[in-house]
C-alpha cells in the first residue's frame, strides 16, 4: 500500500460550554466562563481564575452546525482523501458529549434545518454520502459501533456479543483492529442512521438498567469509506476512516491523587479514561514508553494519539461555579493534549488498468453521476 507521508499534525482541541439548564437559570447561577476571543477563555470563580488558549473556544449557544464546520468537516475532507481521523468528545457527565456527538433526537433526520440539534455523527454521515455521490466515483461505506465498558469491548450492532479481542493490524504498523467486530455495509444515510439508533439505544438501555453506568462507558462509531477512481488508465483506491467517540465522563479519572484513590476504592475509576490521560501525559512529555497497552480504549486508539491519524478533541464543560474544580481539571487535561502531534499518512493504492480507454472511463463516470 502506498502511504503518502504528510507533515506533523498537532491534536486539535476545542472547548464547548453547555448552556445553562432551566433550573440553573431559575437559581440565578453566575457563569465562571469568560470567552475573550475564538481561542482564549478565562475560568473565574471568586478570586480563583485561570486563562486557557485552545484551537477554538465556542461561545455559549454555538450551534451544532458551527461545531461541525469548524471541527469535523476538515476531518471528513482528510478522510475522503484516505486518512484515518478521530474526534473525541471529552468532559464531565452532563456537559453535552452525547448531545455533541449524536444530538438530542432519538432518530436523526436529514432535515438539519428543521432539527438543528442533530449531532456530529449524523452530520458527518450526510456529508460523506453527499460528497461521494457528487464525486461520481465508485465507493463503498461500512460502519462499526462498539462500546467499552468495564474494560470489555462489546459490539453494539449485534446483540449478545462477548468481549472482543484487540490485536495489532498486520497491514498497518502502529494501528490495531478489533477481532470479529461487525463492519456493516451501508448504501446511504438512512441505513447508517438506522444502525446508529440500534447501537445508541442498546447503550441507552444498559444505562437505564444500571443507572449511573452510562457515564462510565465509551462508544466508538466508525465510518470507513473505500473510494475507487479511474483516470488515464490508472485505478486509485483510497481507504479513509473516521472514528467518532463519546467518552466516559471525565470525573471518572479522579481529580487528584487523593480523589483518585477514593474513586479506586469505590470502584468508579475508569481504567481506560485514566490510561488515556496517562498516554496524553507521556506523549506530551515525549516519554520513551507510552502505556497504550494498559487499557482497551488506548489500545484501540493508539494510532489516533501520536500515530498516523488526524485527531480532534471537543471538550465539553459546564459554566456552573458548583463544578469549578472539575472544570479546571478537565480543561487542564484537554490543554495538555494540544502538545501531542501525529504524523498522518494517506492510504492510497494505485493499479494500472491500461486496457481501459479514456472514452470508456468518462462514460463510466457520467453513468455513475446519473445513477447517484
Ligand atoms: P453527557 O453526554 O456529557 O453526559 P448530555 O449530552 O447527555 O451530556 O447533555 C446533558 C444535557 O444537556 C442534555 O439534556 C442535553 O440536551 C443538554 N445539552 C448539552 N449540551 C448542549 C448544548 N450545547 N446545547 C443545548 N443543550 C445541550
Ligand atoms: Mg452521554
TrEMBL record:
Subcellular location: Cytoplasm, Cytoskeleton
Descriptive protein name: Kinesin-like protein
Residues of the full protein shown: 1 to 372 of 920
Family: Belongs to the TRAFAC class myosin-kinesin ATPase superfamily. Kinesin family. KIN-5/BimC subfamily.
Top-level taxon of the source organism: Eukaryota
Species annotation: Tribolium castaneum
Kinesin motor domain mapped to chain residues: 10-340
Residues that, per the record, bind ATP: 91-98
Amino acid at each position: 500500500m502506498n502511504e503518502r507521508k504528510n507533515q506533523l499534525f498537532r491534536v486539535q482541541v476545542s472547548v464547548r460550554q453547555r448552556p445553562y439548564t432551566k433550573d440553573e437559570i431559575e437559581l440565578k447561577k453566575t457563569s465562571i466562563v469568560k470567552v475573550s476571543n475564538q481561542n482564549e477563555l478565562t475560568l473565574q470563580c471568586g478570586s480563583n481564575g485561570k486563562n486557557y488558549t485552545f484551537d477554538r473556544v465556542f461561545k455559549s449557544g454555538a450551534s451544532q452546525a458551527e461545531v461541525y464546520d469548524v471541527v469535523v468537516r476538515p476531518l471528513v475532507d482528510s478522510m475522503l482523501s484516505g486518512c484515518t481521523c478521530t474526534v473525541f468528545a471529552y468532559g464531565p457527565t452532563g456537559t453535552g458529549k452525547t448531545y455533541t456527538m449524536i444530538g438530542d433526537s432519538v432518530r436523526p433526520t436529514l432535515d438539519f434545518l428543521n432539527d438543528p440539534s442533530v449531532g456530529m455523527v449524523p452530520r458527518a454521515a450526510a456529508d460523506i454520502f453527499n460528497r461521494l455521490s457528487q464525486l461520481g466515483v465508485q465507493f463503498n461505506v461500512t460502519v462499526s459501533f462498539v462500546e467499552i465498558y468495564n474494560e470489555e469491548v462489546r459490539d453494539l450492532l449485534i446483540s449478545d456479543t462477548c468481549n472482543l479481542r484487540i490485536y495489532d493490524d498486520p497491514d498497518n504498523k502502529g494501528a490495531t483492529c478489533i477481532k470479529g467486530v461487525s463492519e456493516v455495509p451501508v448504501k446511504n444515510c438512512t441505513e447508517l442512521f438506522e444502525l446508529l439508533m440500534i447501537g445508541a439505544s442498546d447503550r441507552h438501555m444498559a444505562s437505564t438498567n444500571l443507572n449511573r453506568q452510562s457515564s462510565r462507558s465509551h462508544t466508538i462509531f466508525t465510518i470507513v469509506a473505500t473510494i475507487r477512481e479511474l483516470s488515464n488508465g490508472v485505478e486509485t483506491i483510497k481507504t479513509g476512516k473516521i472514528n467518532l467517540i463519546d467518552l466516559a465522563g471525565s470525573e471518572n479519572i479522579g481529580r487528584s491523587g487523593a480523589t483518585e484513590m477514593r474513586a479506586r476504592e469505590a470502584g468508579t475509576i475508569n481504567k481506560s479514561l485514566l490510561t488515556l490521560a496517562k498516554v496524553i501525559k507521556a506523549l506530551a512529555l515525549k516519554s520513551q514508553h507510552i502505556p497504550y497497552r494498559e487499557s482497551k480504549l488506548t489500545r484501540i486508539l493508539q494510532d489516533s494519539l501520536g500515530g498516523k491519524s488526524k485527531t480532534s478533541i471537543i471538550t465539553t464543560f459546564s459554566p456552573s461555579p458548583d463544578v469549578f474544580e472539575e472544570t479546571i481539571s478537565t480543561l487542564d487535561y484537554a490543554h495538555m493534549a494540544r502538545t501531542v502531534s501525529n504524523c498522518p499518512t494517506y492510504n492510497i493504492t494505485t493499479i494500472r488498468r491500461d486496457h481501459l480507454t479514456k472514452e470508456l472511463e468518462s462514460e463510466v463516470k457520467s453513468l455513475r453521476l446519473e445513477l447517484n
